[in-house]
Amino acid sequence: MAIVCNEVIKKYRNHKALKSMSFLIEEDKITGLIGRNGAGKSTLLKIVAGLQKATSGHVQIYGEQPFNNLKVASNLVFIEDTMSFSPIFNLGELFQMAKDFFPHWQDDLARKLLAYANISEKEYHHHLSKGQKSTFNLIYGLATRCKVTLLDEPMNGMDEAIRSDMYRAILKEYIAFPRTIIISSHHLHEIEHLTEDVLLINHGHVTLHAPLEDVKGLLVKLVGNITKIKESIPSAEIYYENESLVNGEVIVEATSIASRETELSQQGISIHPVSASEVCKYLTSQTRGGIDDVFK
């Protein structure tokens, strides 16, 4: 396994940011780390990157603990929108220095991507706009070709056109040089075309860790008379329900209606797929009615 987390806990005074978090990430896969604001995504990535130490539990990167470990640091890159570089060197010089630390550094690729993004090598990182900083940071991370690449909300601030291009750059680089990549995001739908596995966390816990295709088939939407729907699935766990004047909607696990499609159809209840992004939303929702519950 490329990354192993076992019972990882992170406390900040009286607050537990991570709560007994355990998971395994296979080598050379792209994993989408999904969660709402405050779920613990950034904290987890910083611990995996060796920038913070877990309060308890164990983390291993290719068999090595990452905290204060130069061997891990030379084979891992962590990209976040708050990262900074020395203000005395321009972007071209930052690329030049990267060669001395990252053994697989792709200097030509870095400079071509920067030129494509219309950012001058003579610019200084602290003078760039938010979107330009995010673009440079991502280019820097991809050009390292590190065995482990951690991208924390890498597209923050980018305009729509460059976001699309940078997602494609991630995919093309991964195909050219497979590596273990974790991309954190609030929005699975944005990275779904890249992601092989989904690691969904909520309030410091792992809620779901599964292949994307399994996530897509986890929940279904039932549409019809709300009373009939509930009578048909009395023991099913309901993740979301919405009763309207015409048809109600109920979200349940797909396994709860297995082999009952014809029976439900005869009762006027239709079955609809639920996207992977919506699955993540429903699994981390605090209410069954969503925002509508606030207005009841």
Automatic annotation (TrEMBL):
<dbReference type="Pfam" id="PF00005">
    <property type="entry name" value="ABC_tran"/>
</dbReference>
<keyword id="KW-0547">Nucleotide-binding</keyword>
<dbReference type="InterPro" id="IPR003439">
    <property type="entry name" value="ABC_transporter-like_ATP-bd"/>
</dbReference>
<dbReference type="InterPro" id="IPR027417">
    <property type="entry name" value="P-loop_NTPase"/>
</dbReference>
<keyword id="KW-0067">ATP-binding</keyword>
<dbReference type="InterPro" id="IPR003593">
    <property type="entry name" value="AAA+_ATPase"/>
</dbReference>
<dbReference type="GO" id="GO:0005524">
    <property type="term" value="F:ATP binding"/>
</dbReference>
<feature type="domain" description="ABC transporter">
    <location>
        <begin position="3"/>
        <end position="228"/>
    </location>
</feature>
<dbReference type="GO" id="GO:0016887">
    <property type="term" value="F:ATP hydrolysis activity"/>
</dbReference>
<protein>
    <recommendedName>
        <fullName>ABC transporter domain-containing protein</fullName>
    </recommendedName>
</protein>
